[in-house]
Amino acid sequence: MIAQLTSYERQRAILISLAVALCGLLLGLAGRDDPIGIHGALIFLAGVATIFLIGRDYYAPEPPVERLALYYDDPSKVGIVLAMIWAVFGLAVGDWAAWQLVNPDLTFGGGWSSFGRIRPVHTTSVIFGFGGNGLIATSFYVLQRTSRARLPDQIAPWFVLFGYNLFCLLAVTGYMMGVTQSKEYAEPEWYADIWLVVVWVVYFLIYVRTLARRKEPHIYVANWYYMAFILVVAMLHIVNNLAVPVSLGHAKSYSAFSGVQDAMTQWWYGHNAVAFFLTAGFLGMMYYFLPMRAGRPLYSYRLSIISFWGITFFYMWAGSHHLHYTALPQWVQTLGMTFSLMLLIPSWASAGNALLTLNGAWHKVRDDATLRFMMVAAVFYGLTTFEGSFMAIRPVNALSHYTDWTIGHVHAGALGWVAMITFGAIYAIVPWLWKRDAMYSAKLVEAHFWLALSGTIVYVFAMWNSGIVQGLMWRTYNESGTLAYSFIDSLIAMRPYYIARAVGGLFFVLGACVGAYNIWMTITKPAVAAERSGDLPEPALAGAAAQPAE
Amino acid sequence: MSIFGFHYRLERKTMGLVLGIILVASIGGLVEIAPLFTIHQTVEDAPDMRLYTPLELAGRNIYIREGCYACHSQMIRTLRDEVDRYGPYSLAVESKYDHPMLWGSKRTGPDLARIGEKYSDSWHVAHLNNPRDVVAVSVMPAYGWLSTTELRTDDLTLHLKAQRAVGVPYTDDMIANAATDAAGQAAPDSPLADGVTKRYGKATTVRAFDGRPNQLTEMDALVAYLQVLGRLTEAAIKPVARAGAAQ
Q1: Which among B152, B163, B228, B217 has a CA at the least distance from the CA of B187?
Q2: C-alpha atoms less than 13 angstroms from C-alpha of A263 in its C-beta half-sphere
Q3: How far lies A237's CA from each of A143, A193, A231, A349, B25, in Å?
Q4: How many CB atoms sit inside 10 A of residue A109's CB?
Q5: Three-class SS state of A436
Q6: Least CB–CB distance from A259: residue in B27, B29, B96
Q7: A to B CB pairs, distance under 8 Å
Q8: A313 contacts in chain B (CB < 8 Å)
Q9: What distance in Å separates the CA atoms of residue A133 and residue A83, rounded to the nearest whole number?
Q10: What is the pLDDT, as a whole number, of residue A531?
């Protein structure tokens, strides 16, 4: 890893790590009696550890010049491994939280382990840890292949990958110490937010610099989505996290916005985190890996243009459907509902484009669990976007909002769409990256597929039931015109569904564990496969490189 | 030239795509968010609106720290059953000084927008210590350590200053006395108590919230906050105040 860096790059990397360690030291000193002090120490240690890591191979010989004629895949490899670690951790914490709603004393008396603190640990670990690392790792891979250009340098990708994981680590450890902004999916405090902006700018620059070196005249559709993901997430993140810290030695900050403006800003962020993190990014993944794995060209280029710009434009209006019947002015609610309905068109255009791409390859879907992961993901994407538009209709939302139906909807998207497309892409990319013929065990991929699918279905059906029962019980009147059920009555009715949900979640966790084992065995077994033919920036080199590999 | 012809050229330009994405993605937010700051009717007028006292603010921060918002909303919608269950629907002005707002998105437990003074302090203390002592089937975690953890007050001045920086009208007097006011609000018979009502209004509740006037704990702060929810202004209860705002 370090041996691949030139000595100039090794020096640069040490300087960057030193700067990070110094920032950590200053934070640690400024916040000695606050959780920020612990985070300062953590950042300091991360910086020092990186310096030692580089120092160990500092005098290794310079990397061969021939590397510049190849793609740079080391960061993608590490990113995939990190994504799987976060997946197992984040899903397990989620299932633990689910069991806490069955037995609330599963906190074991700790403050750090109560539902309110581990719930964001779960959401951040799966969305940003698992999803984010999957996106970064695959985006580097896809960007190079579709541009036929190597990444511009060898430090920036590592900076993005490790910097991003440091952000995730600060976020997750922070929640357990009670450090949170309380804004859903934007919980990390001001210093972690600033750090993410730095990381994100470098990520964007990698994209632009690589595209500037591309040998393909056109920018492939997957990259439009990855770019929309990078750009719009930056925009959302910066605006929603504007805040004034109590002091430089305090983790706590106060949001620049309050009340109704804050609610609208937060759900403009929240809904578009779904749109540009959990949708655009993963559509980028799908537009590359699904056609590649199926061995079929994308069904319609024009449909992809319509769905891309439709999603980019419509989604940004839809956030206010999270605030129906609240103190938000009705005109904003109505706009949100209207655009949420229109959003169904580009969403189904994307899902349809993916499924129609499989025409002529359905026998592969039957035989190949990896491709089946991607197919099921596209189906769930279509189902969830339909459900989302439906739930955005005001009278439907009157029933569904605040209930478990929302949780069911989110998990249909998160488990059925995001996790399935990511697992599919990971099972495709692992043999390609590590130069293997196939995964260690196709049977384990199959087992993972069925665990994931059955877990998702059990989870989603449990939450649909509990949500609708809950919503109906809350609004039921008896003959004398008073409310028929107390809140506690509805809570008692939830119990069987909460057990079912936790069991469904357990299936999904087990599937991820099977996947992690399979990937580990694939990576560690000795390489046998030759370079994928043509997997080189210069087509001329492809023939030449194939020879020594024989 | 068709739009596809235009796109055929656009997708060859990195910066063209970048600018296109930024432009197209900015419109929705600008149209929906910016007017909320400029249209006066968005937030009703409530001349009687009080500020959170330092103790209540500290309690609010504990509410955030523990992630209470993950299961409890603070937003009663304009629906008949919600008004019957929880009280008058929430107005925008009621969270005017909430940085950030805690409207929530999920009710694993009930809405808390108007929980203030519905239950006694001792009920809240017992409930937070172990919810199943008072509600047998509750799935809420126990927060036993709140009663034994001393409340940090030495930095409340900085908290109020930061609040003022984001627009909450705390006076210099309030900021200077933040720590003593926090102690005074939970110690009704102490000399510090008078300053609290003087600075924050007669409607402010001064009580030994955790039942122990000689000790200032995180339980005091959290219960003080819960007891003020829905009670900073009467705008939602008095129709007169709302009619005035509509003009």
Answers
A1: B217
A2: 32
A3: 23, 8, 10, 28, 14
A4: 11
A5: coil
A6: B96
A7: 257
A8: 24-25, 27-28
A9: 5
A10: 62
Tokens of A32: 């000695």
Residues in A closer than 8 angstroms to B29, CB to CB, are 239, 268, 316
Please count the CA atoms within 13 angstroms of the CA of B34 that sit on its side-chain side. Answer: 6
Closest CA to A123 of A532, A415, A445, A428: A415
Report DSSP letters for A234-258, one per residue: HHHHHHHT-EEES-TT-S-EEES--
With an 8 Å Cβ cutoff, are A244 and B162 in contact? Answer: yes
Q: Which residues of B touch A491 (CB under 8 A)?
A: 137-139
DSSP B151-202: PP-TTHHHHHHHHHHTT----HHHHHTHHHHHHHHT-TTSTTHHHHHHHH-T
Residue pointed to by tokens 């009580």: B207
Q: Which residue has the tokens 């299932």?
A: A95
A239, A266 contact by CB (below 8 A): no
In this structure, what token pair is assigned to residue B109?
């437990």
C-beta of residue A109 within 8 angstroms of C-beta of residue B144: yes
Query: Do residues A2 and A59 touch, judged by C-beta distance below 8 A?
Result: no
Q: What is the CA radius of gyration of chain A?
A: 24
Which one of A102, A106, A258 would you mutate to disrupt binding with B, by most B Cβ within 10 Å of its Cβ? A258
pLDDT, residue A535, reads: 80
Name A108's Cβ contacts closer than 8 Å, sequence gap at least 6: none
**What sign does the CA torsion over B124, B120, B216, A258 have?**
positive
Q: Where are the alpha helices (DSSP H) in A279-401?
A: 281-294, 301-314, 330-342, 344-357, 362-367, 369-391, 394-400
Per CB-CB distance under 8 Å, the chain B contacts of A101 are 108, 139
Give B101→chain A minimum CA distance, Å. Answer: 5
**For the whole model, what pTM was predicted?**
0.95
Relative orientation angle of helices A301-314 and A221-240, to the nearest 10 degrees = 0
Can you give the length of chain A in residues?
550
B225 CB near a chain A CB, below 8 Å? no
Q: Write the DSSP symbol of residue A413.
A: I
Residue A89 makes CB contacts below 8 A (sequence gap 6+) with A125, A129
pLDDT means over runs of 10, chain A (550 residues): 89 96 96 94 97 92 91 97 98 98 90 95 98 98 96 96 98 97 96 97 97 94 96 96 96 96 97 93 96 96 94 96 96 96 96 96 96 98 97 97 97 97 98 94 97 98 97 97 97 97 98 98 80 70 41
Other beta carbons within 10 angstroms of residue A435's beta carbon come to 15
The CA distance from A94 to B69, in Å, is 17
Q: How far apart are the first and last CA of chain A?
A: 26
Residue B114, classed as helix, strand or coil, is coil
- Chain A environment of B65 (Cβ under 8 Å): 178-180
d(CA A376, CA A117): 32
Prior bond of B100 cis (ω within 30°): yes
CA–CA gap between residue A103 and residue A80 (Å, rounded): 34
Amino acid at B116: G
| Residues A158, A76: Cα–Cα separation, whole Å | 9
| Structure-block tokens of residue B45 | 């007028």
Flag residues of chain B having pLDDT under 70: 1, 239-247
CB atoms within 10 A of CB B195: 16
By the 10 Å C-beta count (0-12 exposed, 13-18 middle, 19+ buried), A85 is classed as: middle
